[in-house]
Design goal:
Helices cover about 30% and strands about 20% of the residues. By secondary structure, the chain is α+β, with helices and mostly antiparallel strands. A hairpin with a 6-residue loop joins strand 21 and strand 22. Helix 16 runs antiparallel to helix 17. The chain is globular, with a radius of gyration of 28 Å. The termini are far apart.
């Protein structure tokens, strides 16, 4: 009997021991473990040019946005769908009317010195500084939705009157001038990123200009004393003080041709010279065939644009002169030859209340060809006391499809007005530079909104807007833009359509086609988040096999 009990006891202990050994396996199958595969790697992205500054409140351009987005973090970060996720703020809520947003900051977030907490006061100072006239920020337009922002920027009221305040160290309250339901998404833009006032004032005007004058709160820091070698590279390392996880160990940003010459973008990304790169639509097809992952955004519109402030062609200030040029062309036939004609100034990537604006909006009405456009031209010139039409040269990109289209425009102008006109095909960089400088009379050029907002797309023709290269100024149009910013639903959609049509009717801008910004990730690379509208690239969660 005792022997039987002893055997049973031994069996029971053996069974218990087996269960104890197997328990971690069972528990492991029940718990979600973080996937750390592909982490701790170095990633390379080529910067076409060096950012002029890494000061978030004044920096411009995609190259700056990429580096700033790694060194700093706003209240929110955007995921791969463009939706805001917690960043420096761990949560937020809005008032029912979307006029007040309250952000709750992380209490464990510190600046890259490893000691100084990131507080609500850092965001208050950053917002006020960005809009202060003394700063002269060229990138603060997205902030104009904040109460008193326009008045602060104009100097009418002090920066302290801006609708932003700290309630304690870790609560930030932002009051808006008009409802912006997706305001948290805006806070991921560089201009909204925090700035520590004491550190800023200690840089004596050199904030953002070298490694010693940057104090960030993002997932990366400049990698050592020689991490930023001007004109050659900006190299970053994962920050040991960042509150969250950072998948890559390093980011390498070679600048221009000093350390890396890329002759073929597809080859560079396919063979791993770079881990991701911007590609043209044609290059995207080749890259995909090589096993690369392609991300594209149809966020750009190409169209025919007049410059009403051109010193070379002052006659273009007259609406009838512009209309005569526009109405002399059979735009219906020209646009029919394109794979897909543009329906308006606002590109398909732009959303209105969660849906693509173009899916629900009416296309603009394109003017029919006017048989006697010369008579309209004479009428306009008579109002100016001028006898002959201006001798226009149409700037355009060096693209066979577009140069062919421009040539057809010139043929019709030559026939309608009895004189010769010219075109000047330019590289895309040179064309963009000429357009930005206002150094043109007429051009086939592109416009890309700075963010996912119909008003942002339309504001490039608004009076006083820094991006208004056309010189167009019209109170009716400006009122429509104001209405769009304050309205919602069908009222907002209708106002957008009216604004798009007004630009065509006033012969300022006629949409031709849309194009995409595309990016290729190397085979085996995942987790890189690309932004439309030149908003940069986020490497925080990047991995590779």
């Amino acid at each position: 009997m005792k022997g039987g009990l002893l055997m049973q006891g031994k069996r029971a202990w053996a069974l218990l021991l087996c269960l104890l050994l197997l328990l971690p396996l069972f528990c492991g199958s029940c718990e979600e473990k973080e996937d750390t595969s592909g982490t701790g790697k170095s990633f390379t992205w080529h910067l076409s040019s060096e950012p002029k500054t890494l000061d978030p409140q004044i920096a411009q351009g995609e190259n700056a946005a990429i580096v700033i987005g790694a060194l700093f973090e706003g209240l929110a970060r955007l995921d791969e769908n463009g939706d805001p996720q917690p960043g420096a703020a761990e949560s937020w809520e809005s008032s029912p009317d979307n006029l007040t947003f309250t952000f709750h900051l992380r209490e464990d977030a510190v600046w890259s010195d490893g000691e100084t907490p990131v507080t609500a006061a850092d965001f208050v100072y950053a917002f006020q500084r960005a809009l202060a006239p003394v700063t002269g920020s060229p990138s603060c337009d997205p902030m104009l939705c904040i109460r008193n922002a326009a008045e602060v920027r104009s100097g009418a009221v002090a920066p302290e009157e801006l609708g932003v305040r700290a309630e304690g160290d870790y609560t930030l309250v932002v009051e808006l001038a008009y409802p912006v339901p997706d305001f948290p998404a805006l806070t991921a833009l560089p201009v909204f990123m925090p700035c520590n006032q004491e550190f800023f004032e200690g840089t004596a005007g050199r904030y953002g200009l070298d490694r010693s004058c940057i104090l960030g709160n993002g997932p990366f820091v400049i990698d050592g004393k020689y991490g930023w070698d001007p004109g050659r590279h900006i190299n970053l390392a994962a920050s040991s003080t960042y509150w969250g996880e950072t998948a890559p160990s390093n980011l390498k940003f070679p600048i221009g041709k000093a350390e890396l010459v890329i002759e073929d973008a597809v080859s560079a990304v396919s063979d791993g010279t770079v881990d991701a790169i911007a590609v043209t639509e044609n290059e995207a097809e080749r890259a995909q065939e090589n096993g690369c992952t392609i991300t594209s955004f149809e966020d750009t519109v190409w169209g025919f644009c007049f410059n009403l402030s051109s010193d070379a062609s002052p006659e273009l200030k007259n609406e009838k002169v512009r209309q005569a040029f526009l109405y002399a062309v059979d735009w219906t036939s020209l646009r029919a030859s394109l794979p897909e004609a543009a329906g308006g100034l606002i590109p398909p990537a732009v959303h209105l209340e969660g849906e693509s604006y173009r899916d629900s909006a009416q296309d603009v009405t394109i003017p029919a060809r006017l048989e006697d456009a010369a008579a309209l031209m004479r009428e306009g010139l008579a109002e100016l006391g001028v006898e002959s039409p201006p001798s226009l040269t149409i700037l355009c990109p060096e693209d066979p499809e577009i140069t062919s289209l421009v040539n057809e425009i010139l043929v019709e102008w030559n026939a309608a007005f009895g004189q010769y006109f010219n075109m000047a095909p330019l590289s895309e960089d040179e064309l963009a530079s000429r357009i930005a400088a206002g150094s043109f009379s007429a051009a086939v050029c592109s416009f890309t909104p700075e963010r996912d907002d119909p008003a942002a797309a339309l504001s490039c023709f608004e009076t006083g807007n820094a991006g208004n290269v056309s010189g167009f100024s019209d109170s009716t149009y400006d009122d429509l833009i104001s209405q769009i910013r304050h309205a919602s639903g069908e009222e907002k959609r209708t106002a957008c359509q009216s604004a798009e049509q007004l630009l065509v009717d006033r012969a300022v801008f006629l949409p031709i086609s849309y194009s995409s910004h595309s990016f290729a990730s190397a085979p085996g690379v995942s987790g890189i988040v690309f932004r439309p509208y030149g908003g940069g690239v986020d490497f925080k969660d990047a991995r590779k096999e």
